[in-house]
Amino acid sequence: METTTTAVEFPANVEAQKLARKKAEKIALENNKLHKRLCRLVGQAIGDFNMIEDGDKVMVCLSGGKDSYALLDILMTLRERAPIHFDIVAVNLDQKQPNFPPEILPAYLTELGVAFHIENQDTYSIVKRLIPEGKTTCSLCSRLRRGILYRVADELGANKIALGHHRDDILETFFLNMFFGGKLKGMPAKLQSDDGKHIVIRPMAYVKEEDTQRYAEVKGFPIIPCDLCGSQENLQRKQIKGLMREWDKKFPGRVESIFSALSNVAPSHLMDPKLFGFKDLKADGLANPMGDIAFDEEPCSTPTTFGTIPLQAL
Ligand code: SF4
Question: What is the β-pairing status of strands 190-192 and 199-201?
Answer without folding.
Answer: antiparallel
